[in-house]
Amino acid sequence: xxxxxxxxxxxxxxxxxNSCKKQVEPAVVxxxxxxxxxxxxNGGLTEYYSGKYNYYMYSSTNIDANNVKEFxxxxxxxxxxxxxxxSLKIRIKDYRDLSSTITDIDTSLSVAYYSYASSTGxxxxxxxxxxxxxxGGTAQNHTWSFSDGSSSNSTNPIKFLKIGKYNAxxxxxxxxxxxxxxxxxxxxxxxxxxxxASFSNSTPMGNVISFSAQPSLGTPPYTYNWNFGxxxxxxxxxxxxxxxxxGVYLVSLTISDSKNTLSTYQNNVATQNPGTCLTKFSYQKTxxxxxxxxxxxIVEWTNSNGDVYSSVGNSQPITSSFKIISVxxxxxxxxxxxxxxxxxxxxxxxxNGTNTIDLENGEFVFAFAY
Length: 370
Known about the structure:
Distance between the termini: 73 Å
Helix content: under 10%
Strand content: over 45%
Number of domains: 2
Oligomer: single chain
């Protein structure tokens, strides 16, 4: 015998109404790819993103023939096991070999410039000696300060610097208590900047001095912006200037080339009978041998034909650079290894043993296992 259930009319209407309503689909969430690579390769724009067109971010480690650990990131098609076309692999070598103390990953992967590895080893550290000069007096005290936060009272300080861009300042006091100071920027190693500004000046005729811009490297044509330190300026390559009164002036020159690269150089310049002293300084750098390519990088690009191009093969030009912009802790990879997410900018030449191609304005966000 069947039991018959009688529903109230109001409840029946509600049930029938709800059953006719269309079910709302979950909102589609579009997430930006975490990992990516973009560059101009051999003149053509190249862009790849993890999660698009089957691309996947792989991270691993390796021990090279010199017992140096490599941190490896590779962006490629997830369906391709080896020799994958249109793929990029980055190898960052540790700052020490495995026979030394335990690696500090925050030193291995840090915000800094890196040299490109070479077959004979590429320097990542330079010995730099600074040489001051004082005119119009006898130097008694030297005070040096550097953009890395260090200082020195030595006449000729020696610093061991990683590749990068720096600033140095010196203040010299003479035996007659005259003080003169000067600051200038300088670059060490592969920083991607090939334009260097400089200038020479004539022997003063009263308060009149002629100047000559001396750009080195860069890509002509150049533009010039002079500041004579007395409120006057010029945009000529070789201006002549009459200073408002006798004395010492800090003259600066900023040069820009056709690629909008900027370089600034400044120096103290004296008129006839300046009545005070002035200082200048120069520096000399010597590369420290690095046969194991410690803290060096290797970039490998496989093109659409399967040809592998590597940054190793010939010495990179001064315009090459590899700079890590940021590093942060990320998730474990598929093998359970910890990873760092690294954002970097790169410029280099790549070789396949026969041909050379340019990788320009490169930028990537990769994961590196450690």
